[in-house]
Amino acid sequence: MPRFDDDGPPPPFAWIEKIAGEKRQAVVLRLICRGLDRVSIHAYAHANGWKEERGDLDHYIEVANEELSKAAGEIDTEIELGKAHKRLDFLYMKAVEGKGFKVALDIQKEINKILTLKVAARTKTAPVPQPKTRLKIVGGQKSAPTRAKRSV
After folding, report:
1. Where are the alpha helices (DSSP H) in the chain?
2. Is the pTM of this model over 0.70?
């Protein structure tokens, strides 16, 4: 048997509106995660026939931003950095097995960045930017820059 608040019964099909709002809230969260800004989210809503007012959409955006902020506060950085390192290590091994040396080099650069972040997290300092290397990849092999040959 349904229960009603002291204000009287809810409007007909209010539960449908509530579910639709929750779904749209989830869509707004996904759009923000994809990098859309407020104007783009409003355009998306308009293009998809959403009937919400601008204020309602702004509220969805605000709630989504709060949810992202809360999620960021719950992250255990040591665990997440460890996961990322293991994933990259696995990809590195697959790249070397498949003779993808350029890919392996790119993955190693990412591993180096993660290690820099781990050291910075332990010492509570900002990570030091790594110098850019200039290796030339030729036919799947790394080669250092060559010197000009002297003619004798």
Report:
1. 14-33, 38-47, 54-73, 77-97, 101-123
2. no
